[in-house]
Amino acid sequence: MMMDKRIVISLVAILVLAAPFIIRSHTHASFWWQEIPLFYALAGFIVSVLLISVASGLCHWLNRAENYYERGDVL
Amino acid sequence: MIGWIHPGLIFIFGALLIPFLKGTGKKVYLLALPVAAFADLVWISRSVPLTTWQIQFENYVITLGRVDQLSLIFAYIFTIAAFCMTLYALHVKENGHHIAAFLYVGSTLGVVFAGDLFSLYLFSEIMAWSSLFLIWYHKTRQSSEAGFRYIMVHIFGGVCLLAGIILHVQSAGSIAFNAFEWGFGWSYLASYFIMLGILVNAAAFPLHAWLADAYPEATAAGTVFLSAFTTKSAIYILLRGFPGVELLIWLGAITAVYGVIFALMVNDTRRMLAYALISQGGYMLAGVGMASRTLQAADGAIAHAVCCILYMGLMFMATGAVLEMTGSSKLNELGGLYRRMPAVFGLYMVGAFSIAGMPLFSGFVSKTMIIESAATLHLPVVWIMLEVASIGAFIVAALKLPYLVWFRKSEPTVEVREPHKNMLVAMALTAFLCVFIGVYPQVLYGALPYAVEYVPYTAGHVIEMLQYLTFAFVGFWLLKGTIHPEPAITLDIDWFYRVGGRKFIGFCERPLIDFANNIDRIIKDIADSFVWFSKNPVAASRILLLSVGVVVTRQLNPSYVQYERDLEELRRVYPRDPENRVAIGMGVLLVLLFFSIYLLIYLTYGVLWT
């Protein structure tokens, strides 16, 4: 079961990666980085890893017990 | 003048009849009202633009009905959303819940059609107060407290709005609601106040915390209603009043990123979605900010508001159904619900794919309009922030939340009941609309006021989005082992006024009261010493003199005790306090009595003698 999922995901990923080389897109690039090959795939991956790490890092700083605001010693 | 029934008044006056109806009749009536309002809108939209329902009030003209393309599209989506959401809330037994919801919807339509600032203010106040009851009807301690904070923040926003309106009317001399002047300096104070009041409603950073605080504490159906109206009507007001204010671009971009980061941190499904909602509002704010430079941004903001109402409503419906069926909305308590509620999961995912901007779903056709406007205007930082928020929304809504609620564990740890049929039907209807707009966006684009040509389905757009989403998924897949929801709350900007408010109350209760008591005691002592002195000033002076003498002689000659004996003798005979002290009220009463008797005598004899 686990293997099937991995195979499916890798197949989809390869297809999506290959798509821009198969289908010529005519979108006008506004920024230089949009010209980088596979920029969107790379960005999607990096940003998702970054966001999850930043969020879990901030959790350590900003998360409190559920009764935080009800406790008397908040003052 | 009156050739058109105000659709908002259909809801507001229609709500008054709800308590008199029962059973099926009530359900039919509840659904008939949005349908009637919709028919009314269709009828009126044949003759736009139109200004109607004008009332002369002193020197001002109150305009309840300004109908043009911009107000119509918002009115349409609000009415459609009201129908879906009423269907979702149909099983709710409390009449008050339905009445509050209808007043809320009706006053939102009042805001949308308001052509002057007085009715705008009036309707936005009705919105704030009626929506409060959707929170309070949850009837938990948390919801009651969150409701209080909610209304406090909205009173603050309302007062800012009112102050701005008064300043504006003073300087402009008219209450017409059109674009406000914007610039830098004291002369724009009125605009600043109005902007502040509206940004509170739009939940823009850093005025967003009330939303994430209060919305997740409302009833399951209440949150669905809340998600649609307040923030989107604020976007409408901004589009009218402040199109192209550059501040909004940056506030919007920050709000969008901030929202998704916090959505990844919290432990409550509905709070996650509330932060996602804040983040989506950021796109619209940015769109409004860019509106004067490219009309595509204005149209994008409107289109995104329409789509956002539908997919946020849908996702709140699904999490509300999970809450009603399991009694929990906490991520750490949920999990493994897929086998028990596949339908809710499937419908939720339609909303999640829409917010993520998956091709063929509604977010794709509207969000890209705003992001591409940032590209055409060459705002690289804004573009990056909006793209980051887009990927973040995908992780939040389409990956993390469904993974933790429907999968993760093999069996649910909570008890699961069946959802009400009407909830499922409402979700199916909303999901259909999300897909319909995604597949056939011309329906939406045709209704947009600025009629911008935009083609979402180019090969480039679709491939870009698929690359984003696939590889964001890969990133999440790799990191999903590190995600462990824990029972916790996440501090946000509201910490400042929640803890700050308690510190202020503590400051008032302890140091300030102590200070007041001390002042009080000192004044009393001084007054007492005057009373003591005036009983016998001669003896009192002697006592004071002798006390000094005693102190002096004690230093010079300790054996000389004559003064001390005299002092004791004097103190003994000095008049004491009377046994019964009469309260000061008694004195006042006697004085009043004296005066009234005097008045009586004066009136009787004075009148008689003359």
Would you write up a description of this structure?
- The complex is a heterodimer of chains A (75) and B (610).
- Chain A is an all-alpha fold.
- Helix content of chain A is 60%, strand content 3%.
- Chain A has a domain at 37-63.
- Chain A has helices at 2-22, 39-62; one strand at residues 63-64.
- Chain A is elongated and about 65 Å long.
- In chain A, 16% of the residues are buried.
- With 610 residues, chain B is mainly α.
- Chain B has 4 domains: 1-242, no CATH class; 248-489, no CATH class; 498-585, no CATH class; 586-610.
- Chain B is 72% helix and 3% strand.
- Chain B has a two-stranded antiparallel sheet with strand order 1-2.
- In chain B, a hairpin with a 2-residue loop joins strand 1 and strand 2 (60-67).
- In chain B, helix 14 (362-376) runs antiparallel to helix 15.
- The longest helix of chain B is centred in the C-terminal third of the chain and has 42 residues, at 494-535.
- Chain B is elongated and about 115 Å long.
- In chain B, 50% of the residues are buried.
- Classes of the chains: A mainly alpha (75), B mainly alpha (610).
- Chains A and B meet through helix 1, helix 2 and strand 1 of A and helix 10, helix 15, helix 18, strand 3 and helix 19 of B.
- Strand 1 of chain A pairs antiparallel with strand 3 of chain B, so a sheet runs across the interface.
